[in-house]
Amino acid sequence: MNALARILRRRIERQGPITVADYMAAALGHPKYGYYMGKDPFGVRGDFITAPEISQMFGELIGLWCVICWRQMGRPKVVHLVELGPGRGTLMGDALRAARAAPDFIDALRLHLVETSPALRARQGEMLGDYAPRWHARLDSVPDGRMILIANEFFDALPVQQFERTGEGWVERLVRFDAVAGEFRFTLATGAAEGEAPLPAPLLNAPSQTVPIGAIGEVSPEGRALAAEIGGRLARAGGVALIVDYGHGRSTPGETLQAVKGHKFHDVLADPGGADLTAHVDFEALAAAGAGAGAATFGPVSQGAFLGSLGIDARTETLLESASPAQVKDIRSALKRLVASSEMGVLFKALCLAHPGQPAPPGFETPPGFETPQ
Ligand SMILES: C[S@@+](CC[C@H](N)C(=O)[O-])C[C@H]1O[C@@H](n2cnc3c(N)ncnc32)[C@H](O)[C@@H]1O
């Protein structure tokens, strides 16, 4: 049993079972033993690989997306360029290299990185030091003003609460410690009444034929609150936010919380702080929270369609022109991983929140209803 597991066991012994969200928050963000606190989890030797780590094209296209959005905003003299959870800083490094084609944008931007991990802040500093970034533990300390915000694979790391549909309604799932087996187990809260669960309406009101007894519903109150905070800022001060992640386009039941370690699925409760924990993002809930705070919403569109409309095929051809035979193979396989529907192309989606006066940003010009990824 690792140090964080011992801390959580003592907490449960003192106060009783904890929510799945509390377990996830500790496993990822405990100041000393949380998953992201001490190490760099990316790459072949780490636990997982994200789109910007697969190919430079991902960040480059997002950099050009930022430049076009800034021009659509009327080229403000100062714009806060904010990234939530920048990882190794790879996405922003590639984005800003591509954006150097527009020096007036580079002059206007003020770079803000929202990151809790000291280890990853150090990596980001090495990558982005030339742009004088300012770090924040939370979005609320970024100054108000026109903003372009990027969040890739950030919302999937925000804690989710889980609820199980029972004969008495939706009841919260908790984590207990089984002293006999010496391990954490799921259990159900006692005494919760129907209607109390903060689940999206499509789940709460679904008939039992479509959402049967035993079904699990998930909700991320932190994700919804953050989308509302972003939406409120954009509505007040102007700008756009691009949220890319894996998840579903419509609020839907299902247990999606998963643990990954060394590129393999792992038991969610086996090794708190030692494995990455994520859950599908509910894009419908994020869009509703942003819209509720006054923002316009575009999408979600599939990652494949988004990158396709930003010109990933043309960028691939340009890279191939000067590539060695080994690089040709890598570039083609990276393109496939990012856009193929059997890989990240459909499961991953892009959602844009914007000031209501902002024209449709690149990649989101498709009329609503034309593409509705599930
Ligand atoms: C899966 S990584 C994604 C990194 C990067 N965006 C990419 O695509 O490679 C999640 C990032 O979010 C950071 N993070 C996770 N939870 C956070 C939180 N609650 N507040 C701030 N940063 C957080 C992690 O330290 C890490 O940098």
Provide the descriptors you would attach to this structure in a database record.
374 residues, alpha/beta, Rossmann fold, 2 domains, 8-stranded mixed beta sheet, 5-stranded antiparallel beta sheet, 16 strands, 23% strand, globular, binds S-adenosylmethionine
How would you characterize the overall build of this protein?
There is one protein chain. This protein has 374 residues and is an alpha/beta fold. The protein has two domains: 11-31 and 159-219, no CATH class; 51-158 and 220-354, Rossmann fold (3-Layer(aba) Sandwich). The chain is built from 13 helices and 16 strands. Strands 2, 3, 4, 5, 10, 14, 15 and 16 form an eight-stranded mixed β-sheet that branches. Strands 1, 6, 7, 8 and 9 form a five-stranded antiparallel β-sheet that branches. Strands 12-11-13 form a three-stranded antiparallel β-sheet. α4 crosses α5, α9 (221-237) crosses α10 (283-292) and α12 runs antiparallel to α13 (325-339). The longest helix has 17 residues, at 56-72. The radius of gyration is 21 Å and the shape is globular. The model has no long low-confidence stretch (mean pLDDT 93). The site of S-adenosylmethionine (SAM) has 19 residues, from α2 and α3.
CATH class of the largest domain: Alpha Beta
Largest sheet: 8 strands, mixed
Structural class: alpha/beta
Silhouette: globular
**Taking Cα atoms only, what radius of gyration do you get, to the nearest Å?**
21 Å
Average pLDDT taken over every residue: 93
Percent of residues in helical segments?
25-40%
| Low-pLDDT regions | none
What's the total count of β strands?
16
Element order: H for helix, E for strand? HEHHHEHHEHEEEEEHEHEEEEEHEHHHE
